[in-house]
Amino acid sequence: IEKKTSFLKKTNKSCYLTNKFITMDLETRVIDEEMTSYCVSIYDGKTFKSFYLNDYEGVNAEKLMLRESIKYLMKRKYHNYKVYLHNFSKFDAVFLLTVMSDLSDDVNPLIKDGRFIDLKLEFGLSKKYSLYFRDSLLLLPSSLRSLAKNFNVEDKGLFPYKFVNNSTIKLDYDGRVPDYKYFDKVSEEEYISYCKEYHNKKWNLKNETIKYCELDCLVLYQIIEIFSKNIFNLFRINIFKYPTLASLAFAIFRAIFLEENKIPLILGEMYEFIKKSYTGGSVDVYKPTPNKDSKVYRYDVNSLYPYAMKNYPMPTGKPIYFEGDILSKLITKKMDEKPFGIFEVEIIAPDNIKIPLLQTRIKTKNGYRTISPIGNWSGYYFSDELYNAQKHGYKFKVKRGYLFDKSDIFSDYVDFLYNLKKNSSKGSPNYTISKLLLNSLYGRLGMSPIAEQHLILSNEKANELYSSNKVEITNVLDLKNGKELISFFNSISDLEDNNFNIKNISIAISSVVTASARIHMSKFKTDKSLNIYYTDTDSIDID
Q1: SS3 state at 363
Q2: Averaged pLDDT for residues 228-241
Q3: Mean of all residue pLDDT scores within the chain
Q4: Among the four residues 44, 47, 381, 494, which has the most C-beta atoms within 10 Å?
Q5: Looking at 254-359, which runs of residues are DSSP E strands?
Q6: CB of 393 within 8 A of CB of 353?
Q7: pLDDT of residue 439
């Protein structure tokens, strides 16, 4: 049965580059296992503004400081600006969420896997103005220090993070430079050089914190500015439309490299079927080393997933559903003429196999686990991975599945970025950009079509939602201000009305990319001349 499906469409390039963004940084301390913020700095490309806890009084001093920092941004001139904080999605968002929901009844969070992807704050009469708070780490997944080096901007500087974690240290401290033990990842030479700067003057905690916090804002601003210009010059894409690296890579692919009417959009029952074949990389320990002095060599595949995307055929065209053992009717044994798709199969592993090749996910009392079993079982697999396993003694019978055409859809994308990486000096902005984008595309196509929803509601409205039974509540965070952040999935009836949150997905491609990578790794797992201790997604450990 040929399934009706639509196809991924091209997206438009940007006509011009906008520069409407701000950087923000919070300095925090941990006393008695409680993390609090004590300094906030903001930089809009021209002006710095900082807020320090000592300038506020009372038990709510921290909240007042954070409130003033957000109010400073709630201006007409900052309408539609993106505010970037590095590692915002894990830590800083928690500090700011309560304050934002105090200042506005219209705070709309986008959260995925427990991380804040985007936090939209609407303010003014009739919600006329908006600010978007984002985590730059989700766009540039590396430490600020590493990024500063790769983008050739000012160094982050040194700061004794652990010094303020001592409850006896006052925030108005003014004295000698803190001891070396309070500095993290700093050499003794760097510390001695730092101390020389304060040979004839006192070290003031407030001044040094603000200086360091503002420097972080400046460094991040310069990194984002260079990143934005380079992406625009290379692809005519505006990074500020995309909160994550995966969404940016996806936009670049669709704007520049996508051939239309090729990639089928997969939803509903077909998505649920194919999702079972998408099990990711393979990680296994086979045996310990003989003794602690044993020498082990690790070999890593160069850009494994981009290699698989370029060199293995990908599923395209309209999917065809079938039932029964399609291979029993096969006349030819030529590889390029065998059925190509995702199949549900009954499998028997060879008795003598030492390193199993086919993996599956099983439910245990501790959650789902990915294993490579022996014996026999039923599972969902990419056809070419089955044919590869067959060469090593596996037997299988096809029960049903989906057939696809096969095409090369990623070569131009991979070649462009790989050549950019090869022709850029290591550690340069373009080298970093190419490396990031090469590995960020395939996973975006495998996202779930049903996204978790998130709302900030008053306690009263929240109680109404709980009693309605219209949604499946997954998490509740009490913001301690009469409001709650509620995470939920829409009801089944809503989903049947095609209320999907994410439509541009094709999980068959993500499944085939990872399965093709496992096929490549099987060459080493089955090499009898190798004594293998461990393998993971893209590397082997041998003697």
Answers
A1: strand
A2: 95
A3: 90
A4: 381
A5: 284-285, 297-300, 314-323, 341-348
A6: yes
A7: 86
- Smallest CA-to-CA distance from 67 within 106, 35, 91, 99 is with 99
Beta carbons of 106 and 88 less than 8 angstroms apart: no
Q: What pLDDT was estimated at residue 336?
A: 64
Predicted confidence at residue 516, as pLDDT, reads 97
Residue 266: phi and psi, rounded to 5, are -115, 120
Give 381's strand partners.
Answer: 343
What tokens does 346 get? 């009954």
Q: How far apart are CA 533 and CA 285, in angstroms?
A: 6
Q: Which two tokens stand for residue 486?
A: 């509620």
Q: Dig out the tokens for 416 from the structure.
A: 């462009």
* pLDDT for res 497: 40
Q: What is the pLDDT of residue 350?
A: 96
> What are the residues whose beta carbons fall under 8 Å from the beta carbon of 178, sequence distance 6 or more?
160, 163, 203
Q: Side chain identity at 31, as an amino acid letter?
A: I
pTM exceeding the 0.85 threshold for the entire prediction: yes
- Say whether pLDDT at 355 is over 50: yes
Q: Is the pLDDT of residue 491 over 90?
A: no
Mean pLDDT of 446-459: 86
Give the C-alpha distances (Å, rounded to integers) separating 249 from 135, 151, 439: 17, 19, 9
Place of tokens 């420097």: 215
- How many other CB atoms are found less than 10 A from the CB of residue 73? 18
* Phi, psi for 445 (deg, rounded to 5): -75, -15
Q: Which residue has the tokens 């040094």?
A: 208
Return d(Cα 520, Cα 526) in angstroms, integer.
11
